[in-house]
Each structure stands twice: as C-alpha cells, then as structure tokens.
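Inputs:
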Amino acid sequence: MNKNHRVPSNRTLNAVEVKSKFGAEFRRFSLDRSKPGRFDEFYGLLQHVHRIPNVDLLVGYADVHGDLLPINNDDNYHKAISMAAPLLRLFLQRKEEADYSAFGTDTVTRKKTPAALAAVLLRPDANKKKPPIIISLPKDFRPVSSIIDVDILPETHRRVRLYKHGQEKPLGFYIRDGSSVRVTPQGLEKVPGIFISRMVPGGLAESTGLLAVNDEVLEVNGIEVSGKSLDQVTDMMIANSHNLIITVKPANQRNNVVRSSGGGSSGRSSDSSTSFYGYSTPGSMAMTPSHIIQNYEPDEESEEEEDLVIEADRGAKLIPQAGARATASTSMPTLPRYEPHLDLRPSNGTMSTRSLNAHDMGLEGRNLEEEGTVITL
Amino acid sequence: MKRFRRHGHESQKDKHKQDLYQFNKTVEHGFPHQPSALGFSPSLDLLAIGTRSGAIKLYGSPGVEFMGLHDENAAVTQVHFLPNQVDMVTLLDDNSLHMWTLQAHNGMSELLEIGRFTLSGPPGAPPSVTRVTAVLAHSSGELLLLGTEGGHVFVVEVPGFRELEENNISVENVQNRIPEDYVGRRNLECVEALHENPLNPRQVLIGYSRGLMVLWDLDRQRPIQHFLGTQQLESVWWMEDGVNILSSHSDGSYCQWTVTGEDPQTEPEKQETPYGAFPCKAISKIIQLPSKQGPPFLIFSGGMPRASYGDRHCISVIHSKNHEALDFTSRIIDFFVIREGENHKGEPSALVVLVEEELVVVDLQSEGWPVIQTPYLVPLHCSAITCSHHVSSIPLKLWERVQAAGALQNTHYSKKPWPIIGGQNLAPDPPQRDLLLTGHEDGTVRFWDASGICLYPMYKLSTAGVFLTDADPNDNMNQGSEGEWPPFRKVGCFDPYSDDPRLGIQKIHLCKYSGYLTVAGTAGQILIMELNDEAAEQTVEATVVDLLQGQEGFRWKGQARLDVREEPVLFPPGFQPFALVQCQPPAVVTAIALHSEWKLVAFGTSHGFGFYDYHQKNNIMVKCTLNPSDQVALEGPLSRVKSIKKSLRQSFRRIRRSRVSMRKHHTANAAKLQEINARLEAEALQEMELAPVQRKIEARSSDDSFTGLVRTLYFADTFVSDSSHSTPSLWAGTNGGAVFAYVLRVPSLERRAEDPVVAHAAKEIQLMHRAPVVGLVVLDGKGAPLPEPLEVAHDLARSPEMHGSHHLLVVSEEQFKLFTLPKVSSKSKLKLTAVDGSRVRRVGVAWFGSKTDEQLESGLVVLTNQGELHVISLPSIKMMVHYPCIRREDVSGIASCVFTKYGQGFYLMSPSEFERFSLSTRWVVEPHCLVEAPLQMRLKNPSSPVHRDQLDGVPTEHRNFKRESEGYGVLQEIQKSLEGDQTTFLENNLKTKPKGNMLSNGD
C-alpha cells in the first residue's frame, strides 16, 4: 500500500529530536533513528518521561503535512520516526478524555503551526459542534469518500471513491441510459452512455458533493462501462458497493479540481476533498488518503470485506485470509474487548487490516448467540 | 528472454484450451416455433418446414436434418421442392423467392441458399401485380410458375431465376375468352392455385380466387378450357387420371369438374358440402388419391359447420365406409400424403399434417388409422416445460427398464415404421446413453433419449394421480361417442391446459444407479419414486413438514397444499411414488438433492430447508431461513404488490409486442405499418425521455425480499468439523448469500432401518457480498469435484482423494470462492460481476478431455445473465474460455439452460425447441448426413443453355404430344404417349453433353 512512500535516504542526522506534550507539559528527548525500538518500549518511555506510569495514553504526532496521526503500533511508530524532519512532535492524551475527532486531516491540514494543532487538541469543543453520538476510538475513523488519481486523469474527469463499509447510510443514487457526444476522427458522434439520474437526499453519494445528476459514468472500479448495458453497470456497481470507485465526467465542469503546479512534483496525488465522519463506524484511521490511496488497483485485496463464518460451537469468527499478505502496515490493533470473538491472526507483529468490521462482527456474533439467527449487517 | 519464455507458456496454454474447448450449437431438438409452411419431396423423401421467423428445416430419416435461415426476418409462406431435384424454393412474406440446395461436401450434405429473386412488374404497376400468391414448381424442374395477387401468372426459369416474359399468362389473356354473363368476369382476383396436369406437364390449371379456373396450354400459350366456378375458390386438385378436377370453396363445399374440351364448362359435374345443411367454414385444401382397395381416399381440411364446430381444427379423411374428422388441438398449417411405390404413385400410406404446435402422421393403411410416433419434431411443450434435468451415461439396465415402461405407454401408436426416410444418417452412434428429463406444468415428467441427434420420447411419468385435483380424469374420455356427426377423433398430444397449476414440476433429480427419482413441484410437494417393472396399487405416505418452525406473525396467502388421495392408487409400471413430503407453507420447491446411498432427500423453499430419510420415512431436520421482515416470502406470491413502475414497463412491453405481432400478421400494407411504427417509436421515445429507465444503486441489504430462499442443496462426504475424519454433510445456500452446513450421522447399513439419522448444525457462512448462492461443490484432495453418490460403489468413478485438504467452492451469482475445509478460510476467488457486470445464472460441473488424451479435466460450466458461457478451471478457478451463446434478452432461454456432465448443454430457444450446444472438443453430437440426388436428376445433370434451347424452340415431340392429348384420347393412350415423351426428353438431354455442373447463384 505504501509503495509510493519514500523514506528520506539522505539524512545525515541519526538522532530524532522528540518533543512530547501531555496536557500543558512538554518533555524533550531524542531517539536513534536507525534503532527506534518497539512501540511498547516507546510507550513505556513516554509514560516514564512524563511520569505518568499508570495513565492510558493515546499517542499522536504531527506529520510533515501537519496532520495529526496516531502512534499505536510498531508500524506507525517506525513511520513517525522515519518521517520526523527532524523534530517529532508528539501529543499525548488520556485515553478516557481523548478527542478522537482531532485525528485526521480535515481540520488540521490547513493549520500547520504547532500552536494551531495544539489548540485543536486542547480545546476540542472550541470551534466545532460535538457529534450527538458518543465518539468512538480513533481507529474507527474512516473516510467516506475521496477524489483519487487526480494526477493521471484528464481534468474533465473525476474519479470518486465511496466507502460504504458497514454503515447505515445508503449509497443513494440512480443511473440511467443516455447519450453523450464524443469527438472522433470522423467528427462529433453521438454515443450511448450511462448517467447519474437521481441522488437520494441524505445518501452517501449526495453527502459527498462529488457526484451530481447528469454526470456521465465512465468507469466502475477501473473498468470502462462503454458497451455495457444499464443492467450490467448496475450489477457492477452493486457488486462493488462496499468500495465503489466511479469515474465520472461531471456535467458541471466548473468545479473541477485545479492541479497545483508544485503539488504534483512530489509524485503524490493530492486528495482535494476528503471528508470524514466522526462517529462510530469501524475502519482504520491510519488510512489517511494522502498516503494510502494513490493510483488505484482494482483488485486490492485489502479493501475487501470478509465473509463471516459461524462455527456451531465457537460463535462467530472472521474468515482469515489463507494466503494473507502482510501489506497492512498502517493498521491498528483491534481493541482487546473484541478479541475473544474475533480469532484474529497477528502477522509480523501487526494485526491484519481485516479488523475493519470487527466491531460489527462482534455484535453480530453476540446476536447470533442470543437469537440463534444471523442478523446481517 | 523472459518475455519470450512467457509467450511460449501462453501459447502452450492456448493450445491446451483449444484441445479441450470449442463452442458449437449443434442441433435443434423439438418442434419449430411458429411453423408457417410445409413442403415434401417424394423423390428425396424429405420434409421441409418453414417458420415465421424465416427458418427452414429439412427432415428425412431419423438423424437426417438440415437447418437454414433466411437473412430476411420474414415468415416463410410456401416451400416447394423442385420435382426430382435437390433444390427447393421458398416464398417469404416479403414477396421474395429463395432457392436452396443440398450440396454434398466431403461426403456430407449442406443446406445452402444459392439464389434469391423478387418479381419485378412493369414500371408503374401496383405492387399487387407482382405479389406472389401461388407457386407451381413445374415437374420439368426447370420452370416456376408464379401466380400473383393481380391475377397474372409469371413464368420463371430456375435455378437461375430468369424471367421468361414471353411465357407469362396475363389476366387479359384469360379474361378475353370468358363469357359476358359470367359473374367473375370483371374481377378474377388473385391466383389462388396452380396445378399441373399429372399426365401432361404442358398443361396447367390456374384457379382464381373468384372461382374461375382456366386450363392453360403452356406451349401454345392459350387457354384450353374455362371452368366457371361461382364460389370463392380455396384450392384445386387435379386427380391422377388427368381428367377430373376437384375444387374446394369457402362455403365448405367442393366440386368435381371434368376436362371435356367443351369450353366453357359452366356447371361442375358434382357439388358436395360434406358437413352441409347449415353454413360451413371453408375447405382450405382438398386432395383425392386412388386406392387399389376400393374407392379413393378423399382428404380435406376444414369444412366444419360454422356455428357448432367452427372453432375446431379438423382434417377429414374419407375412404369407402370409413370417415373420420381428425380433430387437432392447434391450427392446421398444411398437410400432404405419402404414397408407396417406386414413383410414389402407389397406395396412400400416411397422412402428414403440420399443425401450429406439432407434426402428426396418421397411418392410413392400418386399421383405425393410428398415429405413427414421430422420431423427431416431438412437441416438447405439449404441456409447458417448467424445468429440465440431464443425466449422462445411463447404465444399460436402467435404460432398458425405462424403455420397457415407455413401450407399454405407446401401444396406441401404429406399428408401422416412420415413413419419411430420405437421406443417410452418417453420424457415428452416440458414445453413451443420455437422458434428458423435462418437468411440465401439468405435473408430468418426460424422459427423452438425448444420446443422439433425435430427441426421442422414451417414457412419460405423471404425478397427478397422487393428488386429488378438480379435474375429473374421465373428462377426456367422453369423446367420440357413437353416432356423433361429424365423426371427430382427437389426434396429437399438444395440450397446453393444465388442470391445476400446483401440479407443475419444479425440480427433478434422478439417481441413475439406484433408479430412485425425486420430483418436486409448485405447491411444496416432493415425491420420492422408485422404478418398478410391475404395476402396483399402493398408498403414498405423506409427511407434512413445517418449515417455519414457529416463526411469528406469519400469514401465508399463497396457494393451498395439494390434497393427497388417501385410498391406494394403481400405478402403472415405471416410476412409482412411495413417499411424499409436503412443505408447509406450500411454496414452490426451489432446490432439491437426492443421496441414494444414504437414502436422504433434501429440499428447500423460500422459507427454509429440511431433509427426509426415505428409508425410515421420517423427516430428520428443518431449518427456517426466513428473514422475519421479508413480507413477500412470508405471505406468498399472491400478495405481491405490483409497483406502478413495473406495470408501466409491462404496458410498454405489451405495446411493443402487439406491434411485433402486427408486423407479423399483415405485411400487405407494410409501408403503412412502418409509418405507424415509426410514429409509435417516436412517441415511446418521447415518453422515455420524460421518465427514463432508472436503476437504483444500492448495496444489497438483509432486508431484501427472498433472502431466505434456498437456492442450492448439496450432499457431500467431507471434512466438516475435523480434518482427520470425513463425515456425511448437507450444505445449503440461500438467496441472501448464506451457506449452512450440517454434519450428518448416517447409521451403518445393518442398522440403517433402526437407528435414526442425526444431523447437527456445523457451520454458517455469510458471504459479505450477499449475492445469491447458486452452487456448492466440494473438491477433493486433488482438486476434483466429489463423485456422485453410488458412483464409486458402481466402479464408475475413482474414489475421491481423502488425503490432503478438501475445499468448498461456493458459487454465488457474483463470485466464485474457494474455502478450505474443515476450517473455513477463504483461499481464492474469482469475481465476475464486479469485473464485467454479468451474473451467474446457471452453473454445472463438467469433465473435459481432448480428442486424443484419455485424461479428463474437471471444470465449471457457467451461463451468465448476459447469455455468455464460461468455462472455469478447477480447482484454480480461472476463466478458461467464454463464448456468447444466448441473446441476453432471452431470459427464459437463459433460465432453461441445463448442462451435461461432459460439457454439452440444452436451452429452450422457444417454448417448443431445445438448442443443443457443446463446449467440448471430445463430445459433440451434431447431425452428419448425406442426401443424394434422385436418379432422374443425376441422369440429366442439366446445363442451363440446353434448357433455354428447349424452352425457346420447344422440341417437336412435345408439340406432337400436345396435339394428341388435346384430342382427349383414351387414358391409356395418353399415358403411353407421355411415357414416350419422357424418354425422348431424357434422351434429348443425354445427347447434349453437359457443359458444366449445376447452375449456381448469380448465373
């Protein structure tokens, strides 16, 4: 997943300067970049330097883009260390009073000063409405939509990814047959096409603001729809509904993404609009789109939801991937609370990303035990 | 280098694919949909049927069949073989004529279209002038006479289609000589009939619609005699003596006229209305043939008393004291009579009738005129087909027993062999015995011999006897009471009316080793049957199984359960039911599985599934799969609310359909119709723009209707709970993407009667993509599908590999997923819908092998909703090949598809026809036949210039002969001179060296 991620290789400094903030207190120390050690050692070190040995902490750091990202496993810890340039700014929170909504990119991206970042952290309620429901863990944050592949698509096209996962919200749009005009060597030609015909108010598609009525659908999950019937395209979209990527030609071309001339030089695609929902749906918060979703691979196994297997005597479990790939370097471990139900396999010291729906699965498992029927998602 | 190597690998793979797979549509079984024309060649002994969709099919002796399709999508209205040739002319609805020929190629005949032609009238003439209504293929094989709507007769030379304008017979030529006072003088109307003098080919009879008939001399191009009929003419028949002519009329009468030479003849010799007194319907065709045994056979269609029997489709056969009105269940298209003897001039032996839904052949030589069973063209749809099931390689023993049971049912058929025996069937004998079982709406199961090219009916099983239905079984017997007039006799087996729709068969499973058969029907009934060679009287034990298991808030509003006859029922030899399971609620049975080794039957409906021990006759287990919120499934199909959108869509379809049928029926004013169509289409388009067809994009949810519907059931001996011991198990897949597994404990053979079969739930898999599970297969340690029950016991399959891990293959409508067993973990998968938008409709396991290699490879054969066939390798689940097969609009065709175990398949291309296809290189069943030209033609082998010479300057012999015949000499004399003429004709041709082969198209 991190194939485009570049580890700075020309650094001469071997030490990483760490500035750790807990409440109003700062601690400064340094770490060896080449030998960062493991996360639990690091965690212990933090508790030690702040003298808070019995406090459960949420560890966050500000990355190069100013995003507040969590550190909670070896992978993201190593990443944080390797990305520190040269200062690694840490923000510690008590787990019980943590404000998870601070994580992510949305509010923090544009305010890159540590002060602003700190302000968000310290006064979580200052400039935003608190969600009506109980805020869940940072790992439960997940993107609901994004524009991807801006660097490789023509400016007139837009590739939108909708993350349906297990949430209640309907995808909420309709498609229809239509015709569009194409420029061909023979001149203008009318060709049949598939268009968005209607948006369901309050649906996922509408709430993203990235799709609109009369947008022409060009691709579904990387596969061109030209030559396919409306029913075929419908079936393709439904089959991909858990992770739908639609390439459209927006009817309104005025809101197109304007590519920044400097932004593309780093080789990473810019996520111009990524909105997050701050309530309890499982997902990996570490999936910050600016790092993960680069040019999309259609058959990205790690995005799949897993089938649910219920053994008659053991309750529910997720189906482990028989030939699991240990690609999920940025994921976080599942909470211990759910582990008895999940039977997850740690791989290379990392939990598999297959914990995506762990929360729901766990619930489902219990329902099963209670009622004896499968309550599906 | 690397790339090169990979390329080599690819090409090797490709070669492997080519060795194993090839796609062919091979034969069409059954009866052509919407036949519209019939033709017969006595010299070739071939039958031709044209259809409304422009297809032309030829049949000879069993196995000899040819199929052609006109490019124009127009109905075939007439088919005429050129006498004594291998050519055939078809007339289409669009007024085009087509020449077909049977060309031998590598020892195999092919049906080819070699020419087409449309009459061109004089400039400025109305289209009716050239609209062909009657065709006469002249016995010389060189001329076509085309009668038209305008009353003209055009003469065309064949096979090149050259108009011989100077020979045309115009209305004016005919009209000149008609007496002033004749009623039909002003308007003769169209040419209704053209008939050649059976003794003198230079004389033709032209029958006009208004009743006038004219005897025309082709050589001198002038009329010989006028017959001034006054009734609307339907058909004419020139009797074999050459002297008498029969004409049939629209008022249900027929007349006999004599060729006297007195011109004009104003009154017929004899006029008769066979079913007379009250007004009768038209006699559309009449023929009379001499018989050595007494008076001639008179055969005519129609003529029924209008008021009382106007709706009957009848052909009357009268021979001395025997008079029968053969009563058909569908419209009569055409008929002909086969005659015995060398020149097909002998005794009438069989009457062949083409009706809209079947072909009926009546044996005219046996007492009581019994029907001869047809070896092909059997109406599959005599009751609508509701499901089908194919069983490959039937053991000989079972085959013979089924055959014997079937033979007992066919005693009412004639013992005479099939009379149409043209061509040679050169196809090799089928390598194995295959059965195709079709389930029908009326509760019957028909067994067909599907081994070869002819789908031959073997045995018919009726399940209706088990139940009490509204219909009285004696209803149909009350026909043909003494002294009834007309003397009706029901013939044919097409009977589309079902007594009780609940009897319909939905699922069939036959175990070929044990002879056990399970059939399941529309009202939740599952019958378990056993093959018995003796008739037996027995009571069928019924077990009602509640699939709801105390589900609350349930109200079934669908059909009621079938009532079972409580008294013992006499079952004829064959498959006899001995156990019955009735699901409650009585919803359609959607899946069954039979395991004859364990003696278990599993069944499923939209409410759940269960399985039944037919050895101990008790139900073992029930599982309700119903989602409590699924109202549609809960209440049954009757309460389904029709959405406005749906009804709108339906009305659109109806409009379209009516437009299509309109187009089919009246092509006369095609131009006007086209205009209307265009307008309608524009209107429809406009409406479309107002309310476009939309599709909702939404992830499937568990609340969708029918998620609990059981789609597939599967018995397997595999590792369900631990990896060291395999156990019997039952697997079920639902519409909602759930798979349930049960471990079974089947008692040992000795204790089978006493110890109970025990089942306990072992696993549940919920597929996250929620697509309906349509297939479940367990693959053994070597990746091959488990064999069928008893297959190993009968030494017909190697035992499954029990070492190494087994795998479960779950086929959903969208994906193929392989799971390890016993620990269910996903191993690999193949996504179909996400990639190309098609969905799995039909799936089967098949074995493929190359022509040379004995080794067989297993694979999955899949038909998608796009009508594409895929072969998917096992156990690697990779797409190997795919071929387009069925139009995606043909939903019922796709739904009807059934696969064989060796890579062939069948689907209904129309309600009455199975198309057979093959995906295998090794197993292909296709016609391979040869039709040789009749002797006369081979002698002639004409070349076109000779013909022209003859036609332009008619040989003197002909002239002489004509004069002679004009003198109305004694019959014998005529015959003698005719024979003489024919020999000279032949000699004439032999003398002129043929300059080339047959005339081909465009010449």
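Chain B has six domains: 27-118, 124-272, 279-377, 381-485+498-624, 706-837, 838-931. Flag for discussion at group meeting.
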